[in-house]
Amino acid sequence: MRFQMTFFAAIVAVGMAAPGMAAAQSMGAAPFAACPSLDTLESLGEVPEGTSFPCLGIATFGRDSDASGRGAVVARSGAVARFDLGIVDGSAVLVPNERALWDLVGAPELLQFYPDRRVHAFAPGGKKGKPGGGSSGGGGTATQTVPSGVHRIGADTVWGADTGLNVRVAIVDTGIDFNHTDLAPADDCFFAASYSSCQDDNGHGTHVAGIVAALDNDQDVVGVAPDATVVAVKVLDANGSGLDSEVLDGLGWVLAHSIDVVNMSLGETAACNGPWQTAIDNLTGAGIVVVVAAGNDYTETVSDMTPAGCAGVISVASTVAEDGSNKCIFASGAINRDTASYFTTNEATIAAPGGRSEDWNRGCGGRLNGILSLNLGGGTTTKSGTSMAAPHVAGVAALLLGAGASWDQVACDITSGSEVSGSAPYTHPISGATGTQGSGILSAPGALASSCP
Residue 377: how many CB atoms within 10 A of its CB? Predict the structure, then answer.
């Protein structure tokens, strides 16, 4: 039996979901709205009713354009070039009024104009369709723990042969806690123009980084690829919110800084558009593996999401790593290991643990028992969501590259080496979420044993 997401949002146990995101856009200024697209303007022949100014957009130009030329075109229209986006031959712009908007989209040098949309790292049941994770708990562990997700994918069985040494994984997120003693992030990093450092001020990015590469030592947890190097790319604010343009700016930095794998546990409910697809094409064309969270809305598929719906990415759905319980009187069926998480967006490339387990009571109230990883400020905490599933895959990608696989083998090795392919993820008995189309569950030893050409 399927229920509405609003029902589930109300009954997820208190303390297991992160607080909702602030409504303001992140750019260190007023919460400006997104501009209408050129396609919308041409279709209507006028600015849509309700459009507010100033507004934010992304202007793209020909491949023979350069930053100064793009800036000059924007300035000539009366708009403001906030920063250049070389990775998409574009510019992030602030449009002050309707006249400047028409002048800009009418410039002969302009190829296309897009709204600068919001992206988020959200908790399941918090906002519809945004990848992310709910959280609970805190504190540290006196001895090192192998988290349930790391154990479920078998990463702890391959470290004798491969730990991801010399592989650089960009965590495109809220930043990383550079003071956490169970992480060793790279010194080089990126922060968008809205921020003053790469330091995490939310906790989401630190948790994601810990799943990928928490150190193999005597404290807290160990990550999937403990010798990989995580690189902070801070594009989301303290509320876990940002803009398309800020993420694209970060991906431009990634392209120029010897990154091997990108993890994006973020997104928006919107189809992949031109700037996003161009950025992904440029990353994969440079031999960079791009892993993204599928999303946390079981009513959607990845084709409805950005960046999960962009061609060339490895999109990741969420499953549970251990058996849970289901006493819901309205929907029978077990929630055992490898069941799709109740919230996960569907038709992803691969599934991986985004939660430890789920427990549902007779009144159909659900508790998400999260993945243990690192906490902002030290120690550990639990979070659940496709945001936690994706870094398991990014970690296995690092293991594969560390073992000598070429970047274009990675996706094939991950899917062909999966476990229980053809049957898992198992359908969630309450929400009906499936996660993928039977692509199986991520397996580190299976991926490393794969022989994709």
Answer: 13
Neighbouring C-alpha atoms within 13 Å toward the C-beta of 91: 26
Choosing from 120, 180, 204, 207, which is the catalytic residue? 204
In the beta sheet, which residues pair with residue 355? Answer: 320
pLDDT per position as a tens digit, 32-70: 999 999 999 999 999 999 999 999 999 999 999 999 999
Active site residue 392: no
Out of 341, 387, 439, 450, the active site residue is 387
Query: Is 244 among the catalytic positions?
Result: no
Name, in order, each residue with C-beta under 8 angstroms of 106's C-beta and a sequence gap of 6 or more.
none
For the domain with range 33-116, which CATH number is right: 3.40.30.10, 2.40.160.20, 1.10.10.60, 3.30.70.80? 3.30.70.80
Q: Which one of 89, 116, 173, 227 is the catalytic residue?
A: 173
Say which range, 31-35, 154-158, 164-168, has the weakest mean pLDDT. 31-35
DSSP letters along 385-405, please? SHHHHHHHHHHHHHHHHHTT-
pTM of the entire predicted model: 0.92
**Would the pLDDT of 133 be above 50?**
no
Asked if residues 92 and 85 have their Cβ atoms less than 8 Å apart, the reply is yes
How many angstroms separate the Cα of 21 from the Cα of each of 197, 212, 237? Answer: 21, 25, 10
pLDDT band at 352 (very low <50, low <70, confident <90, very high): very high
Q: What is the pLDDT of residues 67-92, one digit of tens each?
A: 999 999 999 999 999 999 999 999 99
**CATH architecture for segment(s) 120-449:** 3-Layer(aba) Sandwich (3.40)
Domain boundaries, the chain: 33-116, 120-449
**173 catalytically annotated:** yes
Distance CA 311, CA 118 (A): 20
pLDDT of residue 408: 94
Number of helical H runs and strand E runs in the chain: 11, 22
